[in-house]
């Protein structure tokens, strides 16, 4: 049995990735299982998805703690999530990133087999949106051989309408062509530890009131962003529409009446750019 754990953010399609591969495996006569693992998270929050593929019936229904393969749809997770937890010594780590092999290994202290692909660039080119699920399926198939690529393409055709299917097929194929695999390599330096702001604990008296705890402020949720708004002041008429429509409250109007974006909390949803009357906002990677 081959066990795969997907790490992504809400809205990136990690759950869909696991489902497509599982359905393709079942269509081939194999046994497969996919399941998500998340709580009340919204778009952009870290999520997990699990996938099992086997030639024999799968009796287990628990989460995957010792995966053979880990697929990371967003390299921004590497600093806050231990994506290699439980990964077998002979396992495989597949990451969507523009960083090179040495940078990734140094960042997380990983010495095992590694595969890298700039899935976000492929998704933006082929789909026009930063959703990397089918792209990462292409990388997974190339470096693991978990299923034939034809089986995945068939399921993509079933999952999406004709127009979207063609775009996703192109993204999947391109990722399968350009994904790079690296043999195990010893890492000399220790892995860098992520900051744990907001995760310390203290006891308080029952019924006590805490003044300005700052729980939400301790998490820079802008880390979820794959695109950011870029603003051209020469086109701005100070209408405040961007401020009113920002769902995160990440846009404020300064003393001169111009908008300012707080990139610590901006999720990169692009609503400001869509609603701006004068098109002074545009989304950039």
The profile of the biggest β sheet is:
7 strands, mixed
Q: Would you list the SSEs in sequence order as H and E?
A: EHEEEEHEHHHHEEHEEHE
Estimated share of beta-strand residues = 15-25%
What shape does the CA trace take?
globular
Q: Which spans have pLDDT < 50 for at least 5 consecutive residues?
A: 194-200, 209-216
Structure, described:
This protein is α/β, with parallel strands linked by helices and 285 residues long. The chain has 2 domains: 2-182, Pyruvate-ferredoxin Oxidoreductase, domain 3, CATH 3.40.920.10; 221-284, Alpha-Beta Plaits, CATH 3.30.70. It is 28% helix and 19% strand. It is built from 8 helices and 11 strands. The chain has helices spanning 14-27, 101-108, 119-126, 133-144, 149-159, 162-178, 241-245, 271-275; strands spanning 2-9, 31-37, 46-54, 69-72, 92-96, 113-117, 180-182, 228-231, 251-253, 259-261, 281-284. Strands 2-3-1-4-5-6-7 form a 7-stranded mixed beta sheet, covered by helices on one side. A hairpin with an 8-residue loop joins strand 2 (31-37) and strand 3 (46-54). Helix 1 packs across helix 4 (133-144), helix 4 (133-144) crosses helix 6 and helix 5 packs antiparallel against helix 6 (162-178). The longest helix is centred in the middle third of the chain and has 17 residues, at 162-178. The two termini are 38 Å apart.
